[in-house]
Specification:
Blueprint: E1 6-9, H1 15-24, H2 26-32, H3 34-38, H4 43-58, E2 63-68, E3 75-85, E4 90-97, H5 106-120, E5 126-131, H6 136-144, E6 148-157, E7 165-173
Parallel strand pairs: 4-5
Antiparallel strand pairs: 1-2, 2-3, 3-4, 5-7, 6-7
Helix pairs in contact: 1-4
Amino acid sequence: MDQAFQITGFIVEDARDLSDLMQANQDRFRRFLPQTLAQNLSTTDSEAYIIKKKVAWENRSEYTYALREPSQNMVVGIAMIKKIDWEQKTAELAYGIGKVYSGQGWMSRTIKRIAAIAFEELHLQTLHIVAHHSNFASIAVAHRCGFRWEKTLPKEHTVPGEAVLDMELYVLHNSDRQNN
């Protein structure tokens, strides 16, 4: 059953929810969204983060979305269109959801919606998802959304306190969407 979750831009009033999400899910976000986590460890930090992301949205350099739980309009996840190359018409999608809400298909549906926005409204042609081979949930989202594995990116991702990780690149071309 598809619950009526929402995907919106962030507003400053979301700062407490965003900070609470990050703090409650530090173990989930520490490894694969470390910069986002580090910028959202308090409500004050999250206010600054949201303001920075609103400026990025206005500048068309990055689009950061809140995934909202339907009954309380609470922020339970985050998704981004980032590393936008307007000349090549490419971007990377990044995402995370609170553990309580994982496994319900919300992130797959979110990424499908955000991919549609990227292709139809932003007129991008190619989207990337970069995931570690051990991040089975992220890889499953990529597959469910029609992304195909393209290659391994050596030494692509730095995790605090770990060796630099190789990551897997998944790609979706706008022209391939009709086949999904």
